[in-house]
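Quick question, first post here. What does this chain look like in 3D?
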Amino acid sequence: WDGLLVALAPTVALTATINWDLLAVALTAAAILMWSRSRPLAAGILLGLAVAAKFYPVLLLWPLLLLCRRAGRMRAFGTALLGAAGSWLVVNLPVMLLAPEGWKQFYLFSRDRNVDFGSVWLLVSQRAGQTIPPERANLYALLLLLLAAGGLAWLAFAAPRRPRLAQLAFLMVAAFVLTNKVYSPQYVLWLVPLAALARPRWRDFLIWQSCEVLYYLGIWMYLAFTGSGNKQGLPLDGYHFAIVLHLLGTVYLCAVVVRDVLAPEKDPVRQDGADDPSGGVLDGARDVFVVGAAARPARHAAPAPREGELLVTWGTPGAEGSRG
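> Answer (accepted):
Ran it through. Tokens below.
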């Protein structure tokens, strides 16, 4: 049933063929699958290939680092990081050497392009009647993304129970989507599988999807309005409303995921006693680094036996994730 959240997502049907983003989405999903099976090297290799296809999957390294630090599984993170760097280089290095000008064009275009459709910066610029230069938009977006990354670090280390990988991954990519200087309609594909893993509940998923579908209709109707001589389509104010809907829908789903992190008993994935099904080596692992309220005994940690009681563990003998 959770898989149907992706298979039946209306935005997948609407945006899947706009660009090549599904290639990066599929590789990212395969990387998460390999990580969930405790195969960090394979996960890293696939993630590196995903970054070679579309740059956004590199954002997943930050939540992975945070969670591995909290659980003391830095060796697994290092293995994944090396795998990602290696596979990315295998794909990119030949082009970097043989056609350096062509290779760096993507990065130059991303840096120099103006504030574009769908972004909060376009909304601010058009409402204020003042153009935001690309270099200033880059700075603003970077500062906000770094602020979000810092908030994610606090959430990872201070939550009463270690967040699930999918939760932090969704929040990190959503932060980039919300702060970036452009939001192409197909960017929603980046979030769909992560949303299905982070918050597998139809109500919240469909609220977010409804906002994204309305934005999809809004952008094309606005382009029809600006490109038609008889002005048929959606005028500027209507398009601004569509942007606000997109922003609010994404913020809403982020807020629900953050609530699940801070109140783990509300997390639908953990209501049957699971810890982190997609966490791989993180699943059931004990915390070794926490701050604030999380410094109290973690809820998923095995309770200490009282005098006269026998503590029985099961799982892999000697593994940190054994439960009692």
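The longest helix spans residues 236-262.
Confidence is low (pLDDT under 50) at residues 298-324.
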